[in-house]
Specification:
This protein has 240 residues and is of the alpha/beta class. Helices cover 39% and strands 15% of the residues. Bound molecules: zinc ion (ZN) (2 copies). The site of one zinc ion (ZN) has 8 residues, from helix 3.
C-alpha cells in the first residue's frame, strides 16, 4: 500500500475506532497510548536504584550502589529491574493484559521496560519469557510475558528464546498463596527444553509483574542449574 493510501486508511480506522487510553478508555490521539492523566498517576522507578534488586535507594544509601538488604543477602538473579511500582494505577495496565485480552498497549509497555532495563539488555545474549502451562495458555489465548519479550526482542535485536524454558507442571495461581507457600507452589515446576540456548549464556528473564519474586526465582534456579552464565530479571512492574 502506498503512503497516501496508508494515511487515508489510518484516518478511516481512527474515525470508526477512535484511539483510546489503554488504562481509562478516554479518547486520545494515538492507538495504544495513555492519556496525560493516567500517565501522570504512574509511579516510575527512577534512579538512583540498587544495582542488584532494582529498588529505589531510599535508606540514606543514595551515594552507594547497593541497598542495605542486598548488602546482607544473596539474591537469586544477578540483577532485577522494573519500570513501575505495582499499585492501583499500574494494575489497570497489567490486569487487562493478563486476563482481558487487551494487548494493544504492548508496544508502549515494552518501551517502558527497554528504558529501565537498558543496562541488563546491553549485556544479554537472549530473552526468556516466564512460561505459562499449556492449559493456562489455552484459557488465556496468549502469554503476556511472551508478547512483551517478543516486542523487546524486535526493537533491541536480542534473541527471543520463546520455548527454551517450559512449565512442566500445572500449578494453582500464585495469587491464592502467601510467602512461603508461593515458593513451594512453583518449586521445580520449570524445565529447560533447549539447553543449547542456555548454557554459557547471559539471559534476561521477562515477566509482567513481580510480587514476591517466587516465580521468577524458580525460573532463575532452573536456568542457572542448566549452566547459564548469568540470569537477570526484567519486569514491567514490581510490588515495592
Ligand atoms: Zn487514561
Ligand atoms: Zn538492593
Amino acid at each position: 500500500m502506498n503512503k497516501k493510501l496508508k494515511l487515508i486508511s489510518k484516518h478511516l480506522t481512527d474515525i470508526i475506532f477512535p484511539p483510546q487510553c489503554i488504562s481509562c478508555n478516554a479518547i486520545i490521539s494515538e492507538q495504544g497510548g495513555l492519556c496525560s492523566e493516567c500517565f501522570s498517576h504512574l509511579t516510575f522507578i527512577s534512579s538512583p536504584v540498587c544495582e542488584r534488586c532494582g529498588r529505589p535507594l531510599r535508606d540514606g544509601r543514595e551515594q552507594w550502589k547497593i541497598c542495605s538488604y542486598c548488602n546482607n543477602h544473596r539474591l537469586k538473579a544477578s540483577k532485577y529491574r522494573f519500570s513501575l511500582s505495582y499499585d492501583e494505577h499500574s494494575k489497570k495496565l497489567i490486569l487487562p493484559l493478563k486476563h482481558g485480552d487487551k494487548t494493544i498497549g504492548i508496544p508502549l509497555l515494552s518501551m517502558f521496560m527497554l528504558k529501565c532495563g537498558k543496562d541488563l539488555l546491553e549485556e544479554a545474549d537472549g530473552l526468556i519469557p516466564v512460561p505459562l502451562h499449556r492449559f493456562r495458555l489455552i484459557q488465556r489465548k496468549y502469554n503476556q510475558s511472551n508478547l512483551l519479550a517478543k516486542e523487546i526482542s524486535r526493537i533491541s535485536g536480542i534473541k527471543f528464546l520463546a520455548d527454551s524454558l517450559i512449565r512442566k507442571k500445572f500449578t494453582r495461581s500464585q495469587g491464592e498463596f502467601n510467602g512461603h507457600d508461593r515458593k513451594e507452589n512453583v518449586k521445580g515446576v520449570f524445565k529447560v527444553s533447549h539447553p543449547e540456548d542456555v548454557i554459557g549464556k547471559r539471559l534476561v528473564l521477562i515477566d509482567d509483574v513481580i510480587t514476591t519474586g517466587s516465580t521468577v526465582d524458580s525460573c532463575v534456579d532452573e536456568l542457572m542449574k542448566t549452566g547459564a552464565k548469568e540470569v537477570s530479571v526484567l519486569t514491567l512492574a514490581a510490588v515495592l
